[in-house]
Amino acid sequence: MVLLTLLAAVTIGIIRARSLFAVVVLIGAYSFLMASAMIVLDAVDVAMTEASVGAGISTVLVLGTLYLTKVHEAPPRYTALLPLFVAIGTGAVLVYGISGLPEFGAAHTPVNTHVGMSYMDRSVPETGIPNVVTSVLASYRGFDTLGETAVIFTAGIGVLMLLKRFKAKD
Amino acid sequence: MRLDVLLRVASKLFLPFILMFALYVQFHGDYGPGGGFQAGVIVAAAVVLYAIIFGLDEAHKVVPSAVVEAMVPLGVLIFAGVGVVNMIGGDNFLNYTHLAHDQIHGQEWGVFLVEFGVLVTVSGTMVAIFYAFAGRGKA
């Protein structure tokens, strides 16, 4: 509850701040709060990724972009009514969707009864890895992880192609 | 640079610990939280810190652009290569059982190598993107 209140406060700060530098710092703070929320939900691996990628590297990259552009937000060119309507509509649909979810941590849900439990039981005898997240990630779902690595590879060469081309012209 | 002696000394003290922590996250991922993705980002963060404090040229001397850009596809190749080696061993793609004398050790080796591939690609990509952004400011 404390975390969610802080998250809301930071979000309002992000919306209200006009200096983009302050916005970047606040987004970093938002990521750290999100990481803390993940720890509260016992998802330590996700929390670690959020803290290092969200708060660490993306903040640096956004600051690097800021260095190349202007530091102040331009005044909005169009009225904010349509985006506001879309945001409120999406939020309402999501809140309606929450009402269909099972209780947090309930034992009888499909997630906790079929494949999840099977991984929990099989991980140590079959792979010898106590951290089930790692064994699912690298062994049972190795093909997915290969795909994820390929996504990062693709993103990397995409950015390099875009940015390096301009550098060569200068 | 000029007045940032404190920053330079402090970051020099921190860098080995950051890299050590990255290695811990990488190789302890079987037992605690962590793995190739997180460790790769931490390694990249160490390089980025070095580049910010000591300047981009110094960072290029330690970690040249060419190495970083070679790392981006290399990691994917390591990952996929492990899968292909399994196929040569008469097994399914990315089924690590035949990498060692029994299943448990095969899994251990497979996960180790695959996570290493992830580390190489993730850290390479992050540093390459940072170099690309930081290098444009000068031009």
Explain what you see.
The complex is a heterodimer of chains A (170) and B (139). By secondary structure, chain A is mainly α. Chain A is built from eight helices and no strands. The longest helix of chain A is centred in the last third of the chain and has 28 residues, at 142-169. Chain B is built from five helices and no strands. The two termini of chain B are 20 Å apart. Chain B is mostly helical. Chains A and B meet through helix 3, helix 7 and helix 8 of A and helix 2, helix 4 and helix 5 of B.
Which characteristics define this entry?
heterodimer, A: 170 residues, mainly alpha, 78% helix, B: 139 residues
The Rg value of chain B, from CA coordinates, equals 18 Å
Tell me the series of helices and strands of chain B, N- to C-terminal: HHHHH
Tally of DSSP helical segments of chain A: 8
Count of distinct strands of chain B: 0
> Mind summarizing the main beta sheet of chain A?
none
Q: What is the topological layout?
A:
The complex is a heterodimer of chains A (170) and B (139).
Chain A: H1 2-16, H2 20-40, H3 44-68, H4 81-98, H5 110-113, H6 115-127, H7 132-140, H8 142-169
Helix pairs in contact in A: 1-2, 2-3, 6-7, 7-8
Chain B: H1 5-27, H2 36-54, H3 56-62, H4 65-88, H5 103-138
In short:
The complex is a heterodimer of chains A (170) and B (139). Chain A is mainly α and 170 residues long. Chain A has 8 helices and no strands.
